[in-house]
Structures are given as structure tokens and as C-alpha cells.
Amino acid sequence: SSEDAEPTKTICPYCGVGCGIAIDREAGGDDVQFRPWGDAPVNEGRICIKGGAATQVVNHEDRLTDPLIKEDGEFREASWEEALGRVVEELSRIREEHGPDAMGFYGSSKTMNEENYLLQKLARRYGTNNVDNCTRMCHASTVYALRTSLGTGAMTNSMADLAEETDVFWIQGANPGEQHPIANSQYFRQAVLEGATVIQVDPHANKTTRSFEIDETDRHMHLQLEPGTDIPLLNVVLKTVLERHEEEPEAGWIDEAFIEERTEGFDHLTETLADFDKEAAAEECGVPLEDIELAAEKYARADNAAIFTGMGMSQHTCGVDNVQNEINLALVTGNLGRPGTGVNPLRGQNNVQGTSDVGAMPNVLPGYQLVDDDEARESVEDVWGFEVPDEPGLTNVEISHEAGKSVHGLYVMGENPVMSEPDANRVAERLERLDFMVVQDIFMTETAEYADVILPATTWAERGGTVTNTDRRVQRMRGVGKIHENTRHDLEIVSEVATRLFGEDAGFDFEDPEAVFEELREVCPIYHGMTYDGLGEVGLHWPCYEEGDEGDPYLYADTFDTESSLGRIEGVRHQPPKETPDEEYPLILTTARLEEHYNTGTMSRRSPRLNDRHPENFVDVHPNDAERYGIEDGDYVRITSRRGEIEVKAQVTEDIKEGVIWTTPHFAAASGNVLTNDVLDERAKIPEYKAAAAEIEVAVGP
Ligand code: SF4
């Protein structure tokens, strides 16, 4: 656009907060500039370092600009005709020789609702439910627990109502100061300045800890627990609340009327806690009992208390039970169904919520309709005109485990499993055993290196569609057009592959993203009332059942969306991580992310402004451990686990507890995921990224 033309309003491509930004394409050139969008609905013009640097990757020199085909181990350029022909040929062959379940499809939380909708439709038309996305890695367990016990796998409340009404923020295993900077600075910080109290439960002191020391009162608390002891800690809280209620029944420790009218399973909780030993549990958590009791008091006695939950809770083999215990606490204290309360997962990617909403998961169709629910499945089949397999497919980690066994081919749209999955060395080995893999992406990712065909896609800034943020707000993205002539938008690629596979009339040929959205709303009840016009510049929260509905900023005002309409309480017991320290690997390794980088770093590592701040990986080591191992701040160290080793710089700090070390997954040269354990939560199939046994020693360095 020229100088006086309006910049294009779109949404930041990084995190799930969903900040609005504007972009501008240099007149006659290919560079895309960032512009603030002053009255953007979520952030009102504010952005964090990532949002401000997001345009740096759009016209990056590393962009893939032509289709590539691997021949004798080397990539060569190919025409679209040849590349697409090869994809269609291989997908047809695999289905003929091994059946449809021999393919796996990875949607992407970095691509838009329309694109993921079409990809999961392609998988199902192909004949398999083996389709998933990286929500599996971050919040599968949260979604499972929220869905089963409350009805819907999403934030119960919205950032705005929480900021206005919450008196106590209980933040467990989440780090909004680092991961959701604008939610933290714009919403939560505001509430804190107006008197709200923060209780943080986390093994690591981090930006959230520091940002809430802002008003220098001592009302905030940080309960620095041992990794993997969230259930016992919350059981201490629950038991304290129940005991105090016995002592002072009128004091409002629990909400008897709410428990009576709106929940089931309370007796199961009291039975589970009957012989629970608070003192022993507090000891196990490594937190003084009186601190946990005081935190329990602050939460239970608040008018409105809200729980925030993150990957510190979800990425465990007991992830579902971790979140269930948060739900238990919210239900017994009546902190649900009102503004300023609830159980609120802070979602990671800009469209991780939407990717799940539109059905890019093996067990659900669009709108979380179960594939094995005959009535729901048939209603979708009526619109699609073909039959959908009636049993859930494999999750992405299961697909990865089956690669080279029952799974022969993989279709990857914009994900990077070689870095994002745990035990990364094994992931790469398994991908090598596939007959065929096609990757569509903007850069040569660590995963694309293993592909047979690479299809060059466009970036977030070049195309339009919708994304859904962490508080269920669906917003439109708008693009400035293609930078590289020979790239294609993800939607066009999926549409072309499917049309070649299944024919012109198979329902994959759409004029534009809006036409896809129109079909999506037909099969997705929670989006049914939305149109592109209705979304406008402000967006709409789901559920939005009929046109004109405003959408719900908070859920469950009158009933829960479970079969009984009641919220489900269920007592849970401590389950230690699957790998605990021993003589060979005496430390607990835990992992988390940085503000400046995004997951596998495909974009953020290519952004000079972000990479300059954190060009390489590091590990936090407690001073006592450093002394024991002879490690000085800044030394290179080798970290080993049963699965691999990496060399990184040591940062000696009291942010971490003694006996625990902390690193990140972002850097290809030394990713924490080489070390992590790929054991899964049985129900949600999420891996245990947050606790593994490890050893450390001084290394020479590069
Ligand atoms: Fe982008 Fe998230 Fe930063 Fe907002 S908070 S600018 S959405 S990365």
C-alpha cells in the first residue's frame, strides 16, 4: 500500500492472547512493516516484543519459494504440477496398499481455522481420523478434564471479566509474564494494581513472580513446589478448606448451596481426602504447610477467585488429574459460572484453540462433536456427503510412535514434530522409516528435512482467515498478498490436493476462506451464529449459536454442559512423575519457554530482534548444585538424560530449587526435547515434558 493507504488490520501470529496489529506493505516492495492498531479489541494497541518483531520473518531470506522433491537424498526444485502429482500418487498408493489408517495428518495451531477445517475434512474423506495438532502437546489434558467435568474444553471466563472482577488469581503451572505478556500486563496487572492478590504455584521463579511484586505488598505468594507435586499441594488446599468449614460453617470456606445444586461427586472427594496426611504432603511438595494453608484461605475467602492453569499442570502423565483437582477446588468453593472466577487455561499458539474447535483432533469433529456419537457424526456427514470413520484415530504422538510400523505416510501442515515432540532423537529416527512425508511450510524446518515433498506456503501476513484466541474470541486475519509468486496459501494447497484426490465435486473447491467458514459454521454449532461480517473488527466469543448472539464472555452461568448438567467433582491422589531421580540421573529436569521465542523457534529464531535477546539455549542451576558440580555461572555444561544429551550455558540462580534444573525447547542446536520423556497421560495422551531424570557436568563448550 502507499503511504496514505490504510494499513491492514490483522492478528499477531505468536501467542493465544490474540493481540490486534496492523501491517503495511512497502509501496512497490516486498517488505512488510509493523504498524500499531490503536483500538484493537484485545490489546488496544499494546504489544510485546514478539508481536512487534513479527513482520521480520515475512520476507526473510530463508523462505521456501518453490516446491521441492527429494531425489537420492537431496532436494531439487520441482513444479507445482510435479510436486502435487507426487503427493496425490503417494497418498493413493498408501491407501490402496495399507488402508486409510496408514496415513497421519498434522494440522497446525499456527494456521487458520479454515485451513485446519479443510485439512481435517481431507483426512476424514481419505478415510481416517488420524488427524491431530499441537494442542496435544500443550493442553490435551486440560481440554479432557474441562470437557468431562464442566462440558467445554476452553477458558471458562474471558480476560476482560477476570481483570475487572477477580480478587484472587491462583496461577498454577502458568507463566503469563513470559508466555502471555499482554494478558499479564494489560489485564492481570491492572487487577493487581487495583488490589487483587496473586498466588503463584510453580517450581521456578519467573517473570510472573517478578511482575507481581509491583505494588510491594506482601499479600502475594509464590509456592515454589517440587516438579510433579501439584496434586498433593492442591489436596492440602482442599483438605484445609474442608476442615476450616467444619470449624466455622458460616464463614464461607466452601459453598454448600453450590455444591448441593450444581455439582456431583463431593462425597468422592471427602472420601479421597479422609486419610490424607497434610503434613507429609507439604513435605513432599517442599513447601511449608502454613504457607499452603494461608494460600488456601486467601483463595477460599475471596469473593471471586480465578484459577489460571498452564503447561506446568497439563504436561504430566497425571495431567488430567492435575486439572481435575483445580476444577475440584473451583467447584467446592463455588468459583465458577460468574465473572471473575473459573478455571482458565492460558492457551499457547495464536490459533491452538481454533485448531481444536474446528475438529483437527482424532476424537472430535468440528465443535467438539465426538466421532463416536452417531447422531453428531451423521449430522456432519449430511453436510459433507461422505461417511466419517466412527472410531477415534491416533493422536500425533501415537502417529509418531507408529511411523514406519502401521503408519506409512505423513501429511504435515506447518508443524515441526522433530523439535516439538519429546525424545526428539527418536522422532527423527522414526520419520526416516516412513514411506512418504509431505510438509507444507514457510521455512526448511527440522522436520521438513526428512520430507519427500515440500510445498512452499505463505506466511501469516500474506493471507486472510480467522483465528480463535485463548478466551474463545474468533477474530479475522487479513493479508497483504503474496510476496513470492510461486508460493501458495495453505488453504489453496489443501484444497488442490483434496480435489485432485477425490474429484472436483468432492467438496474441497472453495472460492475463498469465507466460503470455507460458511461451511464450517454449518457443521460447528458453537460457531454457527458467526459470519465474516458479524465478526467485523472486534470478533465474537464462542459459543455463538445464532446470528446476532453476542457470544459468552463467561460460561456455565446456570448449568454445566455435562450430561447431568452438573459440575463433576472427583478426588484424585498423588502420582509421581514416571521418571524420578536416582543415582545415575540424580536431578529433576523441567522445561518451559521464553518470552522472546516461540516453541520450536521456526519463526522467532529467524527474527533478529528476538534472537539477539536469546541466541542460544541455557539451563538454570541452583547455587548449591552448582557448587557440588563445580559449575560457575556462564560455564558450558552437558545435560544428559536416558534419551540424549545437550550442551548449553549454565545460569546459576536461586530462581530454581535445589535438585531441579530448567531449560527450554526452542533451539535446534540444543533443544531440551532431546532430553524429555515421551511417556503419556493415559487418557489425554499428552507427554510428560515437565519432569525427567537428568545429570549434569561441566563441558568444554563450542
Ligand atoms: Fe502477540 Fe501474544 Fe505478544 Fe500479544 S502477547 S503481541 S498476541 S505474542
TrEMBL record:
CDD domains noted in UniProt: MopB_CT_Fdh-Nap-like, MopB_Formate-Dh-H
One example GO MF annotation: formate dehydrogenase (NAD+) activity
InterPro entries in alphabetical order: Asp_de-COase-like_dom_sf (IPR009010), Formate_Dh-H_N (IPR041924), Formate_DH_asu (IPR006478), MoPterin_dinucl-bd_dom (IPR006657), Mopterin_OxRdtase (IPR006656), Mopterin_OxRdtase_4Fe-4S_dom (IPR006963), Mopterin_OxRdtase_prok_CS (IPR006655), Prok_molybdopt-oxidoreductase (IPR050123)
Gene3D superfamilies: 2.40.40.20, 3.40.50.740, ADC-like domains, Dimethylsulfoxide Reductase, domain 2
Enzyme class name: oxidoreductase
Region Disordered: start-end pairs: 600-621
EC identifiers of the protein: 1.17.1.9
Basic and acidic residues bias spans: 609-621
The 4Fe-4S Mo/W bis-MGD-type domain, residue ranges: 5-62
UniProt keyword Hydrolase present: no
Keywords for the protein's UniProt record, in alphabetical order: 4Fe-4S, Iron, Iron-sulfur, Metal-binding, Oxidoreductase
NCBIfam families: Fdh-alpha (TIGR01591)
Protein name: Formate dehydrogenase subunit alpha
Originating organism: Halopenitus salinus
